[in-house]
Amino acid sequence: MHRLLRRAGIAEWVPQYPVRLPRGIAYLDIAFPEQKIAIEVDGRRYHDESSDRFEADRDRQNDLVALGWRVVRVTWTMLAENPGRVVDRIRHLLAA
Fold it and tell me: Which of 30, 3, 14, 4 is nearest to 84 (CA)?
Protein backbone atom coordinates (compact mmCIF):
# COMPACT_ATOMS: atom_id res chain seq x y z
CA MET A 1 0.00 0.00 0.00
CA HIS A 2 2.81 2.39 0.84
CA ARG A 3 4.47 1.73 -2.51
CA LEU A 4 1.18 2.20 -4.33
CA LEU A 5 0.61 5.60 -2.70
CA ARG A 6 4.16 6.72 -3.47
CA ARG A 7 3.91 5.64 -7.11
CA ALA A 8 0.59 7.47 -7.44
CA GLY A 9 2.16 10.65 -6.05
CA ILE A 10 -0.23 10.75 -3.11
CA ALA A 11 1.41 12.50 -0.17
CA GLU A 12 0.73 13.58 3.40
CA TRP A 13 -0.22 10.14 4.66
CA VAL A 14 1.04 8.67 7.90
CA PRO A 15 1.62 4.95 8.51
CA GLN A 16 0.57 3.40 11.83
CA TYR A 17 -1.13 6.60 12.95
CA PRO A 18 -2.30 6.45 16.59
CA VAL A 19 -5.87 7.49 17.42
CA ARG A 20 -7.32 7.50 20.93
CA LEU A 21 -10.57 5.52 21.04
CA PRO A 22 -12.90 4.88 24.00
CA ARG A 23 -11.25 1.48 24.55
CA GLY A 24 -7.64 2.55 24.02
CA ILE A 25 -5.28 3.51 21.23
CA ALA A 26 -5.85 2.27 17.67
CA TYR A 27 -3.06 2.33 15.11
CA LEU A 28 -4.43 2.99 11.65
CA ASP A 29 -2.61 1.25 8.80
CA ILE A 30 -2.54 4.52 6.88
CA ALA A 31 -4.05 7.85 7.85
CA PHE A 32 -4.59 11.21 6.29
CA PRO A 33 -4.99 13.01 9.64
CA GLU A 34 -6.00 16.42 8.28
CA GLN A 35 -8.93 14.88 6.35
CA LYS A 36 -9.63 12.18 8.96
CA ILE A 37 -9.36 9.42 6.37
CA ALA A 38 -8.21 5.97 7.48
CA ILE A 39 -7.08 3.25 5.07
CA GLU A 40 -7.13 -0.23 6.57
CA VAL A 41 -5.53 -3.12 4.69
CA ASP A 42 -7.07 -6.49 5.53
CA GLY A 43 -5.31 -9.76 4.85
CA ARG A 44 -7.63 -12.73 4.40
CA ARG A 45 -5.75 -15.01 6.79
CA TYR A 46 -5.62 -12.35 9.51
CA HIS A 47 -9.32 -11.56 9.14
CA ASP A 48 -10.90 -14.91 8.36
CA GLU A 49 -14.10 -15.99 10.06
CA SER A 50 -12.24 -17.92 12.77
CA SER A 51 -10.25 -14.84 13.79
CA ASP A 52 -11.36 -12.60 16.63
CA ARG A 53 -9.79 -9.70 14.66
CA PHE A 54 -12.77 -9.58 12.31
CA GLU A 55 -15.18 -8.58 15.09
CA ALA A 56 -12.66 -6.33 16.86
CA ASP A 57 -11.90 -4.44 13.64
CA ARG A 58 -15.59 -3.76 13.01
CA ASP A 59 -15.96 -2.47 16.56
CA ARG A 60 -12.90 -0.26 16.11
CA GLN A 61 -14.21 1.03 12.78
CA ASN A 62 -17.49 2.02 14.42
CA ASP A 63 -15.53 3.97 17.05
CA LEU A 64 -13.53 5.75 14.33
CA VAL A 65 -16.67 6.68 12.41
CA ALA A 66 -18.24 8.05 15.60
CA LEU A 67 -15.17 10.31 15.92
CA GLY A 68 -15.65 11.63 12.40
CA TRP A 69 -13.18 9.42 10.50
CA ARG A 70 -13.95 8.02 7.06
CA VAL A 71 -12.66 4.46 6.83
CA VAL A 72 -11.72 2.62 3.65
CA ARG A 73 -10.99 -1.08 3.90
CA VAL A 74 -8.97 -2.71 1.16
CA THR A 75 -7.78 -6.27 0.78
CA TRP A 76 -4.56 -7.68 -0.57
CA THR A 77 -6.55 -8.97 -3.53
CA MET A 78 -7.77 -5.45 -4.33
CA LEU A 79 -4.21 -4.13 -4.13
CA ALA A 80 -2.85 -6.88 -6.36
CA GLU A 81 -5.64 -7.14 -8.93
CA ASN A 82 -6.96 -3.60 -9.19
CA PRO A 83 -4.55 -1.07 -7.67
CA GLY A 84 -5.85 1.70 -9.93
CA ARG A 85 -9.30 1.41 -8.42
CA VAL A 86 -7.84 1.66 -4.92
CA VAL A 87 -5.89 4.80 -5.89
CA ASP A 88 -8.97 6.32 -7.55
CA ARG A 89 -11.05 5.74 -4.42
CA ILE A 90 -8.43 7.40 -2.22
CA ARG A 91 -8.06 10.36 -4.58
CA HIS A 92 -11.83 10.77 -4.64
CA LEU A 93 -11.99 10.88 -0.83
CA LEU A 94 -9.10 13.33 -0.62
CA ALA A 95 -10.82 15.64 -3.11
CA ALA A 96 -14.16 15.59 -1.27
Answer: 4
